[in-house]
Each structure stands twice: as structure tokens, then as C-alpha cells.
Amino acid sequence: MVEIDWSKLGFAYTPTRSHIRYHWKDGKWDAGALVQKDTIEMSIAAGCLHYGQEAFEGLKVFRQKDGKVVAFRPDRNAERMQRTAVRTVMPPVPTEMFLDALDRVVRDNIDYVPPYGTGCSMYVRPLLIGSGPQIGVAPAHEYDFLMMVMPMGDYYKGGIKPVRAIIFDEYDRAAPNGTGDIKIGGNYAASLYAHEKAHGMGFPVELYLDSATHTKVDEFATSNFVAIAKDGTYVTVDSRSVLPSVTNLSLQQLSRDLGHKVEVRTVPYEELGTFAEIGACGTAVVVTPVYEIVRGDTTIRVGSPDVCGPRLQELHDMLQDIQFGRAPDAHGWCHEIK
Ligand SMILES: *Cc1c(COP(=O)(O)O)cnc(C)c1O
User: Fold this and answer.
1) Among 183, 197, 216, 338, which one carries the catalytic annotation?
2) Which of 163, 310, 280, 148 is nearest to 217 (CA)?
3) Which residue, of 45, 206, 272, 335, has the fewest CB within 10 Å?
């Protein structure tokens, strides 16, 4: 049995018993194996190291009220990683293999899935890399797919805390016809400098406008932009530079279930001040309310700095109730680890 103080867990790397790793060579994936050592050996000329052939995913596993262990919509992450693989010329991981990897690695680390009631969950990080040597600019000839797991704390132990966001006009995250819609480390490398700068200035999140004109909202650095209009409509962004978030898709469905209108469309910068609620959504924390957006000398205020707006709070709670098995899984989103 592992000894973990679940109340002290944050969002950080914690070694577990094993990860699962598959190798691709000569046109096919091997059967994969659980690996105890959390290091990887590869050529110093590996394609991922030189030309950034790297894709990742992020999803969560929950121990539910009745003891079942489930992953939240892993098929969606598998499909997204397939799209990322095609765009970065890597061999896609079939959904069946992705789910097999998930089942095997979670089962081997089952005692690292936090108990129900702690608010904690297990974070799953799949990784796909070009590991074969490649010095001429071309796709690598060999690849590794791995899935690591780690227990993760309850981000909102003391309740959901609204944050301030900043818009930088001097940095962009994704080019208009670039790679903003796929999940690659390269996008993160490109935004890390601005991210650190924002942190240093006291802003936990940065909001990006479209790179071409800086007139329309794209998304936050690591999470989608969602808003609740004054008439109750759920509004989110339609842009080629936005990463399609599984959390956002799920919140859209829950909004429709509640009978609210959902709009996926262009969001002009000028509209920001008209919203009743704004949030940043993603797997790690579901939704982070944003109460203030600063751009140069302009400050846009939306909602209270102390409490989450009622609609985003409601959607957050609905999603967590499904994930922790407190509410019926009407859409079949939970994949049971057997
Ligand atoms: C991963 C990610 C998100 C959130 O996606 P989820 O599937 O909800 O976790 C949003 N934006 C970017 C840029 C991301 O990389």
C-alpha cells in the first residue's frame, strides 16, 4: 500500500509504480509493457529533441462514490491525439490501443487513485514522441507512446477562487494557420515566456486574442475561453487556433441539458465587458472564473473577485458530480477501468 497524505497533494509530478510504454517501428506498434523506471533512453539525435515531434494529452481518473474507478471521456483524448499525430506526421495511436494503455497503467497503479471524498483524482498524461534518430528535417522513423499517471490534489479545496487575466499585445500563442488546434509541447514552449511574465505580474492566466488582428478572442494559454451572456447563453469561441477542449464540449452539453442556449462563434474583444461570467476551462480544474481582464491601461471587470458566478459554479458542480459518480452519467462519459 502506498502512503500518501491526500490533503497535501498539488498539481505536480509524483512518481508512481509504473508507466506503460509502446514502441513503433517498421510501420507498427508493439504490444506495450509496464515500465517501473521513470526514465527513458533514446538516441541523442531523437526527432522529438531536435525538431519537436512531440504530442501530449491530459485526462483524469476518478474513484467514484460506489468504489468504481472511471476515466472521463478518454475516447475524446484518443481522437484528439490522433488528429495531433496526423498534423505532426507521427503514427496515430488507435483508440483501442489508447484505452488498453489506460486500463493497464491505471490497474497497475490502482492504489494511487485517491479515495472518494478527498476531492483528489488521478491525472493521466499520454505522450507521443519521435524517438528515432533524425538529423535531416523529416519525420522520425521510430516512435514511443507512453502513458504516465500521478495522483493530483483537489485544486479548489477552499472553494473556487476567481482570478485575474492579462492580454499581451506583444506575444502570440498560435499562428492563424498554425498548430493552435493540436496539443503539442511546441505550443507551450512558444507561450512559456509570456506565461512566466504574466505570473510575475500577478496574473495566473493569459488570454490570447487572434494572432492576425488582435480583435477577437482565441483562448487562455492552457484552457478554453467560456462565458455566460447576460441572457444566460453559454458562449465559447470558434477559431482555428483554439484547442478543442473536452471540458468545454462537456460543459456545452450540460448547458443544453439545463435548457440554455449555446453559441460557438467569433467573440470580438469588445464583447468581453458585456458578459455576466467568464471562465477558463480545462481538465485540470474544470473551470476557473475570471473576474478581471487587463490589457495595457484597460481593465475589464466581470463578476465578483470573491466568488464564482452562479452558472459556472453550477456547471462545475454538475460535471464533478458525474465524474465522482454522484449524478447519473446520462451521456456515457465515464469509462470504467476494470
Ligand atoms: C489541453 C488544453 C485545453 C483544455 O482541454 P481539455 O480537454 O478540456 O483538458 C485548452 N487549451 C489548450 C491550449 C490546451 O492545451
Assistant:
1) 183
2) 280
3) 45
